[in-house]
């Protein structure tokens, strides 16, 4: 998991998040099961659109990612 700039605490009128994480690996959860399975079992809460920077032989390109949420406390 990536912390630092990906870690954020936000409280709004419609939702509260203690931690927002971007996970590169399908982590095992404290109570059993896998993170990605738990997050993708629910309905997506939104989508984010962004531009991936150019790298080596690939030009920059627009892309989108789904945003999911779950409670993962032990």
Order of helices and strands: EEHEE
Shape descriptor reads elongated
- Poorly predicted ranges: 1-14
User: Given the helix and strand composition, which structural class is it?
Assistant: mainly beta
Mean pLDDT: 75
Largest sheet data: 2 strands, antiparallel
Total strand segments: 4
Tell me the helix content. Answer: under 10%
- How many helices? The count is 1
* Rg estimate, integer Å: 15 Å
Termini separation comes to 17 Å
How many distinct domains?
1
Q: How much of the residues is beta strand, in percent?
A: 15-25%
Strand order of the largest sheet: 1-2
What this model shows, in words?
The protein has one helix and four strands; from the N terminus they run E-E-H-E-E. With 74 residues, it is mainly beta. The strands form two sheets. The protein has a two-stranded antiparallel sheet. A two-stranded antiparallel ribbon has the order 3-4. The protein has one helix spanning 35-41; strands at 10-11, 16-17, 46-52, 61-67. The protein has one domain.
Task: Provide a quick synopsis of the model.
The protein has 74 residues and is mainly beta. The protein contains one helix and four strands.
Topology:
Elements: E1 10-11, E2 16-17, H1 35-41, E3 46-52, E4 61-67
Antiparallel strand pairs: 1-2, 3-4
List keywords for this structure.
mainly beta, two-stranded antiparallel sheet, 1 helix, 9% helix, elongated
């Amino acid at each position: 998991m990536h912390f630092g700039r990906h870690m954020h605490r936000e409280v709004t009128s419609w939702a509260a998040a203690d931690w927002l994480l971007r996970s590169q690996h399908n982590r095992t959860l404290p109570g059993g099961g896998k993170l990605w399975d738990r997050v993708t079992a629910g309905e997506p809460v939104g989508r984010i659109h962004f531009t991936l920077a150019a790298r080596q032989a690939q030009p920059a390109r627009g892309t989108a990612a789904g945003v999911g949420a779950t409670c993962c406390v032990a």
